[in-house]
Design goal:
DNA damage; lyase; 12% helix; protease; SRAP; 12 strands; DNA-binding; 5-stranded antiparallel β-sheet
């Protein structure tokens, strides 16, 4: 799964690569982003429109769902294209969430130990996401996850779907709606570029979001 992540340097670098039209200032550095908060992401409103920066509520609940309907933070790649809850967003409302890395918790004899996962080369990470308009008119999103690969599988059985560079533009293209075509042109990064290390349990506190030391090896 992906339940916490960091976004401190990746956004401006990935935004420049995507030629993003900035509707607001670059987001401030965050080192421990929890669900149920506003997160910075990128989407396109039309095929020929430039990508734009938007804030998404990390919690996906389409306005038609209403009430106490589920508000998932993740969507599984295995079912996102066919689930009644997600399939419209998968076809027409895809986004990218820039990140520097993410956290997972490994069960140990002394309790759950948080680990930080990131690219070995420290290049920006592009999480694949989907979004929908919420009842209040804002946009809520979920990050796609897939079975863990490479060293990420040492920590958890799921990991976020991280797009390779060639997949960024087609993933954002709202005119690309056919499920099989999307799957044919969108690829995840090679698992060999991911590494991880244990970090302080201070990351367990969701409000602890501004401490750059959270990602340091414990």
């Amino acid at each position: 799964m992906c339940g916490r992540f960091s976004q401190f340097s990746a956004y401006p670098r990935l935004a420049k690569r995507l030629r993003v039209s900035m509707d607001a200032d670059a987001p401030p550095p965050r080192y421990n982003i929890p669900p149920g908060t506003w997160i910075a992401g990128v989407r396109k409103s039309a095929h020929d429109a430039p990508p734009v920066q938007l804030n998404f509520w990390w919690g996906y609940r389409p306005k038609w769902a209403k009430g106490k309907a589920a508000q998932p933070i993740n969507a599984r790649v295995e079912t996102v294209a066919t689930s009644g809850y997600f399939k419209h967003a998968f076809a027409r409302a895809r986004c990218i969430v820039p990140a520097d890395g993410w956290y997972e918790w490994l069960a140990t004899v002394s309790g759950k130990q948080p680990h930080y996962l990131t690219r070995i080369d420290r290049e920006p990470i592009a999480f694949a996401g989907i979004y929908a308009e919420r009842e209040d008119g804002s946009l809520g999103c979920a990050i796609l996850t897939e079975p863990a690969r490479g060293s990420a599988a040492e920590v958890h059985d799921r990991m976020p779907l991280i797009l390779d560079d060639a997949s960024l533009e087609p993933w954002l293209d709202p005119d690309l709606t056919d499920r099989e075509t999307i799957r044919a042109v969108v690829r995840h990064i090679d698992a060999g570029v991911i590494e991880h290390w244990p970090v302080s349990r201070a990351v367990n506190r969701p409000g602890n979001d501004e401490d750059a030391g959270l990602i340091n090896p414990a």
